[in-house]
Structures are given as structure tokens and as C-alpha cells.
Amino acid sequence: MSTTVTVAPREIHDLVYRASSVAGCDAGTAERIADNVTFAEIHHGAAVRAFCAALETETLGTSAWVTAPDVLAAAELAARSTGIASVTFDPPVPLAAIAGTLQQSLERGVTHVGADSGARYDTGGRGDRAVSTIDLRLADESAAAARQALIDDARADAYRNGIAVEQAWFSKLEAAAADYLVAESILDEIDAGSSIA
After folding, report:
1. How far apart, in whole angstroms, are the C-alpha atoms of residue 19 and residue 196?
2. Domain membership of residue 31 as a residue range
3. Considering its fold, how many domains does the chain have in total?
4. pLDDT truncated to tens, each residue of the chain (197 aa)?
């Protein structure tokens, strides 16, 4: 068993955003990647591992970490028009690259099948698991509400108690983000100043 460190979701989000920026992503793309990885780490685990592995092996700006969420957005529009849409990723993408995007679709009334079976709030799934096919369809309101309640509970627990992340991968994430130009202390000052205003 590997050693873990307990971190706040904000730490994951900030470091993934910075590492994505260092890897050449624009601010909006870096934000979307950070949202996906943070959501996936909370709800599926191993998302930091999947992201760091991608940084080591891929050019992030042209990878599925950037393109797959757009493919899902187009499929969501198709599902709204026809009632159902299917997406095939070839090669398969890590669940961590799309997990938050799928959640945002659910919040807009479109659910999915094929991506999150085995989520932490179900049976302990992994964010580094490859996903090849996702079916999107209009959500049944009661089923969507039940899924959302599970997600909300897991999110509240993560923000209250932190998330256990593998130490080795979290250290790699910190190293990947180290070349970002804005220090944490500056961001903390900005956060403190915006809450006063």
C-alpha cells in the first residue's frame, strides 16, 4: 500500500490549474482540467495519478484532457435534441479527464451511462480508469436527484475532512506546478481581499 497525504480539494484544484498552465494551456482550459481532476479525485480517486501520468507522457494542450470535454458538450446537445447520444473515445480517455464535465451535464438534466460505474460513492472506482464509450440521455428527475445527493455528500465530506491522495503522485503534481509564476501566498491574499469586499 502506498503512503497517502490528506489534502484539501482547493490544493488539488490550484496545483492542477498551475501545472496545466505551465504545460501550455490557456486559463479557461486549465480551469476546466482542474475542475475535472478535482471532481474525479473526490468521487473516484486516482485522478491526480492520471493527470500526472499524462503530464509525463503527453502534450497536454493537444490531448484528450483538452478535447474530450468538448466532445461531451457536443454530445450533450445532441442528446437534448434526440433524447440520446453516444460518444466513443479512441483511444480511451481517463475518467479524470471528463468526470466534472459529466457532472455538469447531469446538473443540466442530461445523465450518462458507461463512465462512472464504480465511483467512490458507489463501489470505490478509479479516476485513472480508461473510458471508451459513454451514452448520454435526458435524465429522469428522481434518479438524477438521488445521484446528485450522493455526489453532494461526498463533496461535503471532502471539503470537511480532506482527500487522501497518494503522496508520490501529489509530490509530482507539486513539482509540475512549481514553475507557475503566482505564489500561493499571493493567491491567499487575493482570496482574503475578495471576501472582505
Report:
1. 29
2. 4-196
3. 1
4. 579 999 999 999 999 999 999 999 999 999 999 999 999 999 999 999 999 999 998 788 889 999 999 999 999 999 999 999 999 998 899 999 999 999 999 889 998 886 644 333 333 458 888 999 999 999 888 877 888 888 888 899 999 999 999 999 999 999 999 988 766 676 677 777 765 54
The grid coordinates of residue 97 equal 479527464
**Torsions phi, psi of 59, nearest 5?**
-90, 105
Task: Quote the cell numbers at residue 151.
Answer: 455526489
| Neighbouring C-beta atoms of residue 53, cutoff 10 Å | 16
**Residue-wise DSSP of 132-183:** EEEEEEEPPHHHHHHHHHHHHHHHHHHHHH-EEEEHHHHHHHHHHHTT-SS-
> Which amino acid, residue 39?
F
Q: What gap in Å lies between CA 132 and CA 184, rounded to an integer?
A: 37
